[in-house]
């Protein structure tokens, strides 16, 4: 017979809270990697169609596009990483506060038997590992 661990249930409850942001992050990463396939298509057009037809203006504009796509993708990915780091720290702080509040609300007998400082430090480390995951 399988028993449900209360800590695991709390973990899944927290995970469900952050599910929309996790799904959005996955889609953004997938799109940012997919965008990097576009320069190959642009250059193929330049080599197969524009050079044989001697369309200089088309070659120049497509070459500019060929250079700008990875540049803009890198800038967007950097912004996304910054935003994800800020949100991750915000969520980690919120979760750490809830854990520390929970530790502090325990009866005095709990604090006599356990080192509260070590529990809080371990909870903070675990929280950061959870958020990074």
Whole-number average pLDDT?
Answer: 81
- Number of domain modules: 1
Which regions have little confidence, pLDDT < 50, spanning 5+ residues? none
| Count of helix runs | 6
Largest sheet: none
Provide the structure class.
mainly alpha
**How many β strands by DSSP?**
0
Structure description:
With 133 residues, the chain is an all-alpha fold. The chain is built from six helices and no strands. The longest helix has 49 residues. The protein is rod-shaped, with a radius of gyration of 25 Å.
Write the layout of secondary structure elements.
Layout (H helix, E strand, L loop, with lengths): L5 H12 L1 H17 L2 H13 L5 H49 L3 H6 L2 H17 L1
Note the main attributes of this structure.
133 residues, mainly alpha, 0% strand
What is the gist of this entry?
With 133 residues, this protein is mostly helical. The protein contains six helices and no strands. It starts with 5 loop residues before the first helix and ends with a helix.
């Amino acid at each position: 017979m399988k028993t449900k661990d209360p800590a695991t249930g709390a973990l899944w409850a927290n995970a469900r809270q952050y599910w929309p942001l996790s799904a959005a992050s996955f889609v953004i990463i997938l799109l940012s990697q997919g965008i990097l396939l576009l320069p190959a298509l642009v250059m193929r057009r330049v080599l197969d169609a524009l050079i044989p037809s001697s369309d200089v203006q088309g070659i120049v504009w497509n070459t500019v596009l060929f250079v700008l796509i990875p540049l803009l993708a890198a800038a967007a990915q950097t912004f996304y990483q910054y935003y994800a780091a800020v949100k991750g720290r915000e969520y980690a702080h919120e979760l750490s506060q809830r854990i520390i509040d929970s530790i502090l609300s325990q009866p005095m007998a709990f604090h006599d038997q356990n080192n509260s400082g070590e529990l809080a430090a371990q909870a903070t480390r675990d929280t950061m590992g959870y958020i990074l995951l």
